[in-house]
Amino acid sequence: MKKIIILSMILWGVALSSLSAAKEYMIVGARPDKLFVIDIKARKVEKTFTIPDSTAPQNIVISPDGKIAYVITNHLRSIVGIDLTSGDVVFRADLDYKDDERTWNYGIDISSNGSELYSYDIPTKIHLDRYESLEPRLSVFKTDGGLEAAPVREFPMPRRIHMLMTAKSGALYAMGWDFYKVDVQTGDVQVAYPLRNWTQKNLSQPDALAFWPSWDNNGIFSTPIVYVRTDMAEDNMERFRTGLLSLDLDTEKFELTDFQSAPEILFSSVFHPDRKTAYAAYNTLIKIDLENPHTAKRIDLDHTYYQTDISADGKEVYVGGTACDVAIYSTKDLSRLGEVILPDCPDMGATVIRMIQK
């Protein structure tokens, strides 16, 4: 028994040592055709890859083992898989896979086991004299599909989806006019959380624009959401409210946290791994107390940023997008800790930040 205990302690020590030895990387894209691997603690770009037939990289999905980045590019019409060690293209799916179609992608994610990719496609049929808007679809690809991957399943989907996210259980969630839960085997779609038709008391129909994933280091999707208090006088500016809408991808529980008036953050937010605070940015960077909901601290940024993200240890908050820099701040007091400038200063635009441990 004593030997078993000692062996267990040794194995636990090895596991902890391996965990502490893991490095944290940030993956970002930039126009027209670049994918960067950033050693975020060292504040430097470690690798730069060129994406073939690329225009402006948009969404990025990382395989669960951290080895492959699947990038939406080619005017949102292709998914390209890049090996993050070698830079080789190991996967490609061109979404115009039916005759006379032009197809855009506005949502992508990967299955929990990394075997399938889910793509929300918006197809249009090209006639000689007109364009015909077709029914949106969910296309399911196998990640081992190679360089001419074709969907293995297709299902009709509601319109106006712009974000896909896979829960720990394997269920797929889609955010659009409402939040939907999708069965990726049968195509069954259910409203999981109403937005356009929500029934929140004394609150107007909400608005949100969420294209940026920020759940890599906390397991929670979150987005700023704005609405109006309909029970307050029209000349009372406090009636214009800002909240955070979140979905815990482990428990699949939704939560709405109202924290301030005077909307100032538009696109993205991120929860601290301890889930006691959150951060959001646009022209300002704010720290949000989630236990006693309010804006705890606010600083001005030197330019607009689109995405907010966070380190695995919860000590650093990152803002990126729109330009060629990633700015780094302390989660404790929002003091500036540093920045990473991408080589040759390419425009990140609306590309996303993804965080991985390797």
Question: Can you characterise this structure?
Answer:
There is one protein chain. With 358 residues, this protein is mostly beta strands. The chain folds into two domains: 32-170, YVTN repeat-like/Quinoprotein amine dehydrogenase (Methylamine Dehydrogenase, Chain H); 199-358, YVTN repeat-like/Quinoprotein amine dehydrogenase (Methylamine Dehydrogenase, Chain H). The chain has one helix at residues 2-21, and strands spanning 24-30, 34-39, 44-50, 60-62, 68-73, 78-83, 89-94, 101-110, 116-126, 131-133, 137-142, 153-156, 163-166, 172-175, 179-182, 189-193, 220-228, 240-248, 253-261, 268-271, 277-281, 284-289, 294-300, 307-310, 316-320, 325-330, 336-341, 354-357. Strands 8, 9, 10, 11 and 12 form a five-stranded antiparallel beta sheet that branches. A four-stranded antiparallel beta sheet has the order 3-2-1-28, with no helix packed on it. A four-stranded antiparallel beta sheet has the order 4-5-6-7, with no helix packed on it. A hairpin with a 2-residue loop joins strand 21 and strand 22. The radius of gyration is 21 Å and the shape is globular.
